[in-house]
Amino acid sequence: MWGFLLCHLVALAEPGLNPKKTYEYRYEGMVNIGRGMPNLVESGVRLVCKVKIIGVSAQTFLLRVSNLNFEEFNGIPGKNAFDASPKLTKRIAAELSKPFMFEYAKGRVGDIRTSAEISDTIVNIVRGIIGFFQVTVKTTQRVYELEEFGIHGLCQSTYANEEDANSQELSVTQIVDINNCKKKAAIYRGMALAVDNKLSKERGDSVISTVRYVYTVKPTVDGGLIKKAHALERQHFSPFNVKGGNSKLQATKELVLLSVTDTVVTPAVGPMISRGNLVYKFVKVLAQIPILMKKLDDPVPKIADMIKRLAQANIYQTDSATSEDVVVLFQLLRVTSLENHEVLWKQLSGNDEHRRWLLDTIVEVADARVLKFLKNRFKAGDVSANEAGQTLLIAFNHLAAETDLMEMAKVIFLSMPFSKSHPMLWNTVVLSYGSLVYRYCTYEYDRSCPAAVVQPLLDLVIDGLKRNNEFDMVLALKAIGNAGHPSSIKTIRRFLPGVSAAPVTLPARVLSAAVQSLRHLAVRDPHSVQDITVSLFVQRHLPTEIRMLACMILFETKPPLALVSTVTAFLLEEADMHVASFSYSLIGSIAKSSTPDNHFLSTACNVAVKILAPKFGRVSYHYSKAMHLDWFNDDFLIGTATEIFMLKNAASYIPTEIVTKGKFHFIGKILQLVELGFRADGIKELFRQNIQVFNGHLSYADFEAIFKVLQDWKTLPGDKPLLSAYTRIFGQEFFFADLNNDLIQSVIKTVSPSAGKESPVWSMIENLQKGMSWHWTKPFLMFETRYIQATSLGLPLEISKYYNTVTTITVNAKAAISPPLTDRLGQLLTSDVSLVTDGFAGFSKDQFVFHGINTDIFQCGAELKSKTVVAIPWEFSMKMNVKQKTFEIDLPACKEETKLFSVKFDVYAVSRNIEEPSRAKMTPMMPDSVEIVKFDIYHPQVKVCAEANIYGAVFCVEFEATRSHYIDEYPLYYFLGYTNFACTIQPVQSNKPVDKIHIEMNASLTKYPVSVRHLLDTLQKLPKYATKSFHHSSSSSSSRTSHQALNANSEPVFAIKVLAMNGNTKPEGYEVAAFYTPAAQMDNTQLIVSQIGEEANWKLCTDANSKALARWGAECQSYEMSMKTATAHLPGSRPTLKAKIHWKTVPGYMIEVGKSIEKYIPGMAFLLGFYQKHATNAKHEVSASVVAATAGSIATTIKLPDVVPIPHTPNPTRAGSSSCSRFTLHLWTKKQHTLNTFFQTSLSRCFL
User: Fold this and answer.
1) End-to-end CA distance of the chain, in Å?
2) Are 970 and 869 in contact, with CB atoms under 8 Å apart?
3) Which part of the chain is the Vitellogenin domain (predicted)?
């Protein structure tokens, strides 16, 4: 009996609808996006309507919406109100008023059906309304958890029930964990190349979301009747750590029962189609770019007109005012058909500028249409190999990684004859396909990615192996490395000695490419890669380079402590010092790492360093090295890392391979920014065969030996590269090239002085004499990242980042040659050459970050908008004569302000709707005038200018910012607000009018010939003069005597004049002259800077004798300063480095700067571990000495005049005498790093 009653109560409370009843509800949904702080602008929308639910059958119900009102908000909450949007209301109501059918039984919403013309946006809004009825009520439990489907996907829900004894109604609270849904209604695009970092996410996240539902359920005979329901959804987003301030989205919706009546007549409905269940559906959501809203009807003429307008606006220089319109062009191209694209090609391809703009922007269509468009171009052959390569590279890397597109790309581009028509084009096709495979596996399958997508690359590398074609093997392995497909490991093994089942005898270049092809697999399949790399590393008979590369890849797998210990034990027995030095330096660098991805690895490496240091701690820098430097900030959740690898072997001083990498850590991801690699196989082989006298000290004998070897480069085979280079961006290799014998001979033959009219350089010179013009413009969407998530209202919440750039280079030039060339290029060396040129180089970069609601009919949210502009125009005439070593340039005077560099950004609350696009609102989140409530406004304005009155120009740097500082939140507030930074050149009133600026350089003044041999001898002697006895001294009078003698006996090696010219008046400006004397009198080498003009006597004189001496002012006699350095290592003493700066008189501003620095010295010294004591010291002198105190430490002493005592050791200065602070710092470091450590910990110097 009790069981029957319990079951009855459960049935009464279980939500249900009576198929013979009509239920009328009032629905209100509202969303706001902003900071949630007082006096800051927010944006939002509100939808209010009545909803009728009419029973059709036992489990089928009809929903109709009426009395709809749609409103927008853009302002300060509490001060501004929602504004009605009648046109958009009418549009939405026209669709919502049509009938919607849905299945419903026992609190579960089933299939939703509508007429075919209803848009996906409206269906999702209806899902937000119906979602209230998807609820599980259990009267047998007060608290329970369920995994159930809802509008957010398959997510975990936690319920809590409470019964009201008076009303006999249930209050049901539901919390949905939408951060960890198994099947989340969300999509993520644009960051496939960024590696997830779980350890970073544990320190904080950039997005946190919560949803809470509260129901009032009344038990009835038909089931639980929902009388009232309320939902509150919050999302916190920050480009950094959400704990340090964030943008907040708050969505609320409410459903209130108005009436329940008997259904008299069931409305008739027309044909309907299924639209799926309650889970939010993403259909063509990526087509709508969130930072703009334009009517997209009749796009073809709009695209053609916009391309022509943008091409014209950027025809000479970058037009920053129109660079944002490129994003509009991307949007228009995305809504056009393939047929439209072909029409545009026919219209625009005849004009070079229009053609280039179309090819550069159509790649952002990013689906099957762009592949088919490129297929048509390849098939017709109506694009050049250069155009095809540039277009395909961007198209493949921005293409949506979907199954049908993968198949299309594979079939079309890897098999078309045009793809192989040019080597660089074929390289681009193969490498780009590998990148496409990587992104496809990231988005669609991750580790279970089907092997069929990478099979063409595996076939290509096996075919190269069978034919023993080195280039094909290297290319295919590089593409396989781009793909990072787990199933490729079996094929890669075939190229690795000791790992392959069969013997492997391949060139080192192929082996290197095979090892590096494991780089992405180090993350995707670390255990397999660890097995391979350890096997390679421990084979001591393998080439040194391969073992070092294996070590490098091994540590990218983040090996555990046990594996690091195994490597450490093996290194203790290592005989190859290059392998030992490389591995030890890599382990030592990682031991100091602070980035989250190396959190556990750095601990293991710390242990390894302590074990290996006694044996390898003093290995010479001549051996191979690895360096890893990084930093990470937990507040921002961002960091950077730089790695440099130099791989050598015992056979040559020339590095086999040099690799540099840069990584960026942000919000739980790691992005490999740029990687550059160089191989010197041919050069190394050349030096190994021919060099005989080379000691590595860079003496004259070394340089002479190098020059002799380089003369024999022709002895190398024509197909063997002297130098190879590659570039990877975001971890994907997109370019590699070889510099071989044939290419060098071709270049030398082209530019040789004996080359005649057959040389391409000859035709270039002829065109230059006629006058030439070259222009290049490149619009490029650098990245587009989008994260879209369903909200409880059925509206898509989007977080997007866009970075678009337009780059422009223009060169106009005309040359004259006298006497003109007749038969060979070498005549240029004896002719007078003049050139007149003008042009421009620069770019405009637009960056957007959007957080808010983005649909095809309206948008609201917070938007960061940034613009960076670099503009470098030029105009000058030039004259030169190589034989006479003269060079002249004339620049026009500055007549108008030129902004060379500027950065401007602000954060806005935006509101847009498709019915009234011209009424879009974009309000600064921090308005110009606000009431200060609980926060301060920080508004710095700075402008610093450096005037050059003689030349009539001034260079200015200006900065302005507006910030609000809340005490409890940062670092987001560093970026919230208006910012403007600019560097400009402006005209200024000069002493005399300036027509032009004349620059003259003359290197033919001396009668002494400057040979390469003498230059090397001079460079070699410089350190000897700089390290003479530290006690050497000379008086001011003797110095001036030396200066006078130098002017009397010396001749200038070269002179440079920079003059302001105006008609027939005497020019003004400056002259720089370097004086040369025979080697025996080298102590008197001097550089003099002189002012030119009426009554001008200012000069700067510098001497390069045993001490560096500088004098300046009237005839070099007003001010004087000198610096000496010396080293000493006498028998029985410790190695010592000393330096001293001494001054007699200095300008007042230097005294003021010195005094401003003085007060910081005691505190900085204390932080660096110095201690202070007082002693007598010279009044105008700063000195420092570094002594090798022990084998593992140094002692640093710095003497300063008149230093305030450190607080913890107060010792007043004695009256009438100067004081000295003596600081000693012991740094426990390796002996060979002593000098480096000294420079890293040296203090700033002070001039008083």
Assistant:
1) 101
2) no
3) 17-658
